[in-house]
Amino acid sequence: MAIEFTKYHGLGNDFILIDNRSSSTPVITPEEAIKLCDRHFGIGADGVIFALPGENNTDYTMRIFNSDGSEPEMCGNGIRCFADFVADLEGESRNKDKYQIHTLAGVMTPQLMADGQVKVDMGLPWLLAGEIPTTLANADEKVINHTLEVAGKSWDVTCVSTGNPHCITFVEDVAAIPLETIGPKFEHHPVFPQRINTEFVEVVRRDYVKMRVWERGAGITLACGTGACATLVAGVLTGKCDRTATVELPGGPLLIEWADDQRLYMTGPAEKVFAGKL
Ligand SMILES: N[C@@H](CCC[C@H](N)C(=O)O)C(=O)O
To answer: What is a single cellular component term in the Gene Ontology annotation (predicted)?
Structure first.
């Protein structure tokens, strides 16, 4: 059977998008996703994203497999690409620019903006240790500036879930962090029962930070939307950032706002690269 796909990226965080609207089960298995994401023997991507029929009165359901075949709850850069992808699929019958998307982390609302960017209402962050999840604190406590021993060093970490789990560490010089070696040690640390995405962040100004990420299930990526949102929340909780800031990633900038109603808003690009048939 031939399967059509479209390759997208959001600031270099790249995905294979599949039109899965005729079934509620992904047409690709996690094992196949690993092969497709391979940068030497496959198409190459950080993940495979499926556009499925909407559940609970939403427009669509988004599911994603990481490049290691695991299934995360949410993907920030992915949902911007998803919005552009479904708008394209709808073609001339499209009658809206804002979609209600069901994800494993709840309903997210991306909006296609006139300037080509996509703004996403990412909902509320989860701050309690039991929700993230991590055993770094009691289940009903927040994890702000906790000490975590990794690779023989003490790191000052703040943990936040933006649908998926993140551990944020503020550092003097983000370029000096040996992501390749330290990232996997955070990801598989026993205090994170569902593994973790890890962000290293340098605060340049209260409204401008630089961030590099090691993603759960994907390793080093050029950008992470949920991670950028978690970074801003951690910056506010630790008193380092304003509630609106630009998070500069290796792939480019994202504008993040943690609004007074406590909802997170992320604005950034979604770029179609090419389409093909498997
Ligand atoms: N790159 C994504 C996050 C993808 C999921 C992540 N690897 C996880 O397992 O939680 C983003 O832009 O948010």
So the answer is: cytosol
